[in-house]
Specification:
The chain has one domain. Helices cover about 35% and strands about 10% of the residues. The protein contains three helices and two strands. β1 and β2 form a beta hairpin.
Length: about 70
Amino acid sequence: MAGRQRVDAWIRTPGHFDAVIDFDRAVRDPADPGRLLPARRAGDWLHLDPEGYRVLAEAVPERLFRHIS
């Protein structure tokens, strides 16, 4: 988990990418950042329930779909 957190911190640091969709931040448990929100898990602590996938969809900024000319 520590390795994943280091990689996530690097990805979130400005300057590496044009945009980042932070799915981890959208569905992690603030009380235990290494796991999914209990209310959004499907039962196995690995997969999301349907509402969890809706939360992921809402985490995608609409501006990423706008045409840039």
